[in-house]
Structures are given as structure tokens and as C-alpha cells.
UniProtKB/TrEMBL annotation:
Signal peptide bounds: 1-30
MF GO annotations: cellulase activity
Keyword vocabulary terms for this entry: Carbohydrate metabolism, Cellulose degradation, Glycosidase, Hydrolase, Polysaccharide degradation, Signal
Enzymatic class: hydrolase
Protein name per Swiss-Prot or TrEMBL: Endoglucanase
């Protein structure tokens, strides 16, 4: 689990006239591009290491085994499956649903650029999540199950998922204890995924879409933040800092995508926020909605005038994130990495690069450009900015370190992840008790015995420094919502820049 405790202060940059892509981008450390196809394949493999439930026969991360097989039994419901969010053994519904939405968006926008085996693996990763989300939604409109596991008890233990003996407490939102944010994100995930499976499994797609509409109706009818209803269970882990209106708008946007029912677009327009936002994450969906709906305004005839605000807001988002502009509101490290938050910063890098990749695609299709002050923004410029950020993650940085585990010659060895850091069942069949492994495995300087292929960690600090230490969870913990947006960007780069 990684929470959003620390906020880096935004700062404005002096006005600069940008004459070329190279002057906009930060200094590169290597003239050779990474192997984007290899990184793409590994970024999907990572999700196998996060699986909960009965593992399939084609599981390639062999040090993982079945876990959480009785999840939901405390309430006589079936909540087996889904993903652990990060390095712990809890299933948090809000980040899991966001992870699913972003994997689905990656396929929808960039699936045609993925090799067949890779896109099949992404489909499998999405379905592992949606099967669980359908179970969690089975009692709508009376209840939506949003979490399995007591996070306070879990964080006192350092055990493999296979050994869990902490309470698998079940948490839900209801009409009397609502959670519009988590229900809205669940609706978005199911609606986006329904499009992914539309031509692969029509019946499954229909079930996803029908459940998405139920979840959206539930979210809209019973409005409140889920962290108000379930505060002790979800805070400070995944508090809803941004409120729930962004998730309602985001869900409506995806339902419009899936149904083309104009009432959903009108809902998104009517709930549009007035404020600009430079952070896209599991918590705040505003920039994502704006970029998603901007494609309807980027057509030759001027697009849908009623949705024009989304196009303008998407442009302002781009202008706020690109470096070295008067409009820039995010910080960059000396090595050129976008730096937004002190904890798990790379999640904001991967989400922003995804939006840049998607918007570059939309601009190229419409043959349009726009300006941030005196700087003309082209699809090529956006693509190269995304490329620079991804290259940094994959090792083109001052430390020469890949922040994707298993990619490159130098990558984090002591990640904050229970399953990776403890001997597998095949190596040690006896279970670990709650606190027994801290001294022998958590605090040791020895590398993790199991490599969590493809996991992207929280990343370096504002000075490009990285401390490879399990106890340094802000930098060394991977999470599903760091990897999910990266999938689309890597697919885009793999097709655009041949390794």
C-alpha cells in the first residue's frame, strides 16, 4: 500500500521560447533507446505477481501460489480473486478499479500496436480484475464490496500472501454508508472493459456493461466519499482526497464511450469541475476525463461543441505538465524526471505519460496542433516528452538504474514487497508467523530471493537519488496503478520507436 500523504509544492517556470523538441526535453544520458517491447512484455507479467485467489496453470511467476481462497466468507460472499494493490496483502477496491480502467484504456487506444501475445496477456490481466469486480458488485444496489483485509493488522505483519492469518475483514459501501468515488471508479472500470471484450466475448461484455450502469446509478443516487463511511479502514491508505465528483464524471465518460448514450455525455458536462488539475491518479480523475473526452472535439468540423470545454481543459493540463514553460506547475528533477509527490512519484509519471501518448494520438488523427504560450505543441513533441520520461524509468537517468524490476542490468533488488522478499513455498514450506520475518528478511541487506518481473517501484527523490531499501517504501514499493498506465505508453513507444 502507498498513500498520498506528501505533496510537492508546485512552482512556475520562467517564460522560454521553445524552438525544438530537444530544448523542451531534459538532457538525455544515452543515445540508445531502451527495448520498449521487452519492457512492455515485462510490465504485463508483473500483474501475475499481484494475483490473489486460485492461480491458473499458465502462471509464469512460479514463486507465487494460491492465496485468499476464503476471501468474503466472513460475510458469506465470494470475493476470491482480484489483485493485491502493492507490497501488502490487502485488496483495495479503489486502486484496483483504477488499475483496471487504465489497462482497458491501454488496450482500446494502443492494443493494435501490441504484439498478439502481449495483447492476450493484457486481456487476461483485465479479466482477472473484472471477474473480481463483478463478484464485488453482485449485491448492487444494496451493497458494493470495496475491500478485503484489515489493513492495520496486515501492516503489522510481514508474511507471504500464501501465509496470511490476519483478519480478512470485508468492507462494503451501502445506501446508508455510501461511497460514490469507489462505486464510480468500479463503473468506469467495468464500462471500459466492456469495450475491450465486445468482440471477444459478447456475453461477458454485456454483463460488464450492465453491471457498470448499476454501479454508476448506485454511485450517483447515494453520494458521499467512501473514506467518510469507512475512514478507519481506508485512511490513510487510500483516502479519497479529491472527493467523488471526479469519479462520477469519469464513470459517465466511460459509459458514454461504451453506450454512445448522449445522456452520459451530458452528465459529464453538467458535473464538470471549474478548477484545473495537474495530477492524474487513482484518486483524481479530472485530467483523465478531459483527455478521454477531448477526442470528440478534435475532428475536422470542430467536434462536439457541447464537449468543447474538455478539449480546452486537456490542453491546459498539457501546458501545466510540460517542462520549462510559464504555465508549468510541476517540478522536474535535475535529471529531467517529472516530480509531483514525495511518495511513489512514478505513479504520476506513468499516468501523465499515458495522457500525453493518448493526446498525441488524438492530435495526429485530427491533424491539429495547439499552443502553450509561444510554444507550438505537436503530436511529435508530446510523444518525445513521454519518451523522455519512460526512458528515465528504464535507465536513462543520472544513476543509470532501471526502476523496472528485471529490466536492464541494474534495477532495485530490495523492493518493499512481501512475496518477493520472502522465500517461496517451494523454498520454505512452513508458514511465516506474523512478525517472525522482519528481522531475518525485512531488515536484511540481502537482495530479495524472488524477482517480481516488470514491477515499477516508487522511484527516486527530487534529487534523482534512490535508496534500494525495503524499509524505504516511498521509493521501493511497486503498485498496480504505477504499471497499468505504463502499458499503453510502452505500446505506443514500441510501435513508434523501433528498438
Amino acid at each position: 500500500m502507498v498513500s498520498q500523504h506528501s505533496y510537492a509544492y508546485a512552482r512556475l517556470r520562467p517564460l522560454a521560447v521553445i524552438l525544438s523538441i530537444s530544448s523542451l526535453s531534459s538532457v538525455a544520458y544515452s543515445s540508445r533507446d531502451p527495448n520498449y517491447k521487452d519492457a512492455l512484455s515485462k510490465s504485463i507479467t508483473y500483474f501475475q505477481g499481484q494475483r490473489s485467489g486460485k492461480l491458473p496453470s499458465n502462471q509464469t511467476i512460479k514463486w507465487r501460489s494460491d492465496s485468499g481462497l476464503s476471501d468474503g466468507s466472513l460475510e458469506n460472499v465470494d470475493l476470491v480473486g482480484g489483485y493485491y494493490d502493492a507490497g501488502d496483502n490487502i485488496k483495495f477496491g479503489l486502486p484496483m478499479a483504477f488499475t483496471t480502467t487504465m489497462l482497458a484504456w491501454s488496450v482500446l487506444d494502443f492494443g493494435q500496436k501490441m504484439p498478439n501475445q502481449v495483447v492476450d496477456n493484457v486481456h487476461e490481466a483485465i479479466r482477472w480484475a473484472t471477474d473480481y469486480l463483478l463478484k464485488a458488485s453482485a449485491q448492487l444496489p444494496h451493497a458494493l464490496y470495496v475491500q478485503v483485509g484489515d489493513p492495520v493488522a496486515d501492516h503489522k505483519c510481514w508474511v507471504r500472501p500464501e501465509d496470511m492469518d490476519t483478519p480478512r475483514t470485508v468492507y462494503k459501501v451501502t445506501p446508508s454508508d455510501p461511497g460514490s468515488d469507489v462505486a464510480g471508479e468500479t463503473a468506469a472500470a467495468l464500462a471500459a472493459s466492456s469495450r475491450v471484450f465486445k468482440h471477444l466475448d459478447a456475453h461477458y461484455s454485456k454483463t460488464l456493461l450492465e453491471t457498470a450502469e448499476k454501479a454508476f446509478d448506485f454511485a450517483n443516487r447515494h453520494r458521499a466519499k467512501y473514506s467518510d463511511s469507512l475512514h478507519s479502514a481506508v485512511c490513510p491508505f487510500y483516502c479519497s482526497y479529491s472527493g467523488y465528483l471526479d469519479e462520477l464524471q469519469w464513470a459517465a465518460a466511460w459509459l458514454y464511450q461504451a453506450t454512445k448514450n448522449s445522456s452520459y455525455l451530458q452528465y459529464a458536462i453538467s458535473t464538470a469541475a471549474e478548477n484545473d488539475c495537474d495530477t492524474f491518479s487513482w484518486d483524481n480523475k479530472l485530467p483523465g476525463t478531459r483527455v478521454l473526452l477531448s477526442q470528440y472535439t478534435l475532428v475536422a468540423d470542430g467536434g462536439d461543441k457541447s464537449a468543447s470545454r474538455f478539449g480546452e481543459e486537456a490542453k491546459r493540463y498539457i501546458c501545466s505538465v510540460l517542462p520549462n514553460l510559464q504555465s508549468t506547475t510541476v517540478q522536474y528533477t535535475p535529471g529531467g524526471l517529472m516530480y509531483k509527490m514525495n511518495a511513489t512519484n512514478l505513479q504520476y509519471v506513468t499516468t501523465s505519460t499515458f495522457l500525453f501518448s493518448a493526446y498525441a494520438k488524438y492530435l495526429k488523427t485530427s491533424k491539429e496542433t495547439f499552443s502553450c504560450g509561444s510554444t507550438v505543441i505537436t503530436p511529435s513533441l508530446l510523444r518525445h516528452h513521454a519518451k523522455r520520461q519512460i526512458n528515465y524509468i528504464l535507465g536513462d537517468n543520472p544513476k543509470g538504474m532501471s526502476y523496472m524490476v528485471g529490466y536492464g542490468e541494474k534495477y532495485p533488488q530490495r523492493i518493499h514487497h512481501r512475496g518477493s522478499s520472502l522465500p517461496s513455498l517451494q523454498q520454505k514450506s512452513e508458514p511465516f508467523a506474523c512478525g517472525d520475518a522482519f528481522q531475518s528478511y525485512y531488515y536484511t541487506s540481502e537482495p530479495n530471493p524472488n524477482i517480481l518481473i516488470g514491477a515499477v517501484v516508487g522511484g527516486p527523490n527530487p534529487d534523482d537519488e534512490f535508496y534500494d531499501d525495503r524499509d524505504n517504501y516511498a521509493q521501493s514499493e511497486p503498485a498496480t496503478y504505477i504499471n497499468a498506465p505504463l502499458v499503453g505508453s510502452l505500446a505506443y513507444l514500441a510501435a513508434s520507436f523501433r528498438s
